[in-house]
Amino acid sequence: MRTNLIKTVTAGVIAAGLLGGCATQANKDPLEGLNRGIYKFNDTIDKAAVKPVAGAYKAVVPSPLRLGVSNFFSNLGDVVTVVNDLLQFRFSKAMDDAGRVAINTTFGIAGIFDWASKDGIEKRNEDFGQTLAYWGWQDSAYLVLPFLGPSTLRDTGGLIVDGALFDPVYYVDDPAARNQLLIASFIDKRSQYLPGSDLLDEAALDPYVFMRDAYLQRRSNMTHDGEERERVKEESDAEDAVPADKVASAVAN
Q1: Side-chain-facing half-sphere of 79: CA atoms under 13 Å
Q2: Is there a contact between 159 and 129 (Cβ–Cβ < 8 Å)?
Q3: Long-range pairs of 190-199 with CB within 8 A, sequence gap ≥ 24
């Protein structure tokens, strides 16, 4: 069963990779018509059901308890990060992230308390979409997923692999318990985005474009681990700096 699942997932990712080649550097949203339709569907469902439930959850559940729930799912996400660290041959980071999981799972009581961050171990996020980028699939077409929202063809393939193979939640044998965990994770994450979604509705002239550009920029930065932002900053600093020979000439005069 698991072997068939792996074959299916692998085939799906390869097919997505072939489709991803259709996206050029200049056009990251060749499926805009389809994407806008799915975005509108998601927005309707969100405003009618998901957002009210997330709002009620945030209003009723005390903040310390909500933090514990978020930490619990964040700790499970660190397991996915460790696996993808290894797939990217980043063994030093894999050790650090594995240390986070060990500390939070034991001393943090299954991750409810984030003791690792208090010990100075940085929280990182790696997924199979970033792993695919590491191995060469840099550019991919933007894709909005029903219910799940912004993604790309590459990141969708990564999402499937992470969910089917790496995420501990999917290894829970009891379907009812597994589904409850998935729903709880979804509601918890949506509750964290409540302030941002309100701001998006009020400020953006075209929420779809704002969401798309923000997602692609964030994923680019995550894929390059902040290297692109740092490079731009260094180039900007270099442009603003006065050349040393001009400084020396001015002092001499």
Answers
A1: 19
A2: yes
A3: 190/46, 190/50, 190/51, 190/53, 190/54, 191/54, 191/55, 191/57, 191/58, 191/66, 192/70, 194/51, 194/54, 194/55, 194/58, 197/46, 197/51
Helices (H), the chain: 2-20, 32-45, 51-60, 63-87, 91-106, 115-118, 128-134, 153-161, 175-192, 194-203, 207-223, 227-240, 244-252
Query: Could you identify the residue written with the tokens 């998601």?
Result: 42
* Cβ neighbours around 51 below 10 Å, total: 18
Look at phi and psi of residue 113 and say left if phi exceeds 0, alpha if psi is from -120 to 50, else beta. Answer: beta
Do the beta carbons of residue 78 and residue 100 sit within 8 Å? yes
Sign, Cα dihedral of 46, 49, 54, 55 = positive
∠ Cα 181 184 185 (to 5°): 85
Do 129 and 158 contact (CB within 8 A), yes or no? yes
Residue 22 Cα distances to 33, 92, 120, 130, 140, angstroms: 16, 35, 43, 19, 8
* Among 84, 220, 210, residue whose Cα is nearest residue 152: 220
Rounded to an integer, the average pLDDT of 10-23 is 46
**Residues 163-185: tens digit of each pLDDT:** 999 999 999 999 999 999 999 99
User: pLDDT tens digits for 22-76?
Assistant: 444 458 999 999 999 999 999 999 999 999 999 999 999 999 999 999 999 999 9
Whole-model pTM above 0.70?
Answer: yes
Question: DSSP string covering 179-245, please?
Answer: HHHHHHHHHHHHHHTHHHHHHHHHH-SSHHHHHHHHHHHHHHHHHTTTHHHHHHHHHHHHHHSPPHH
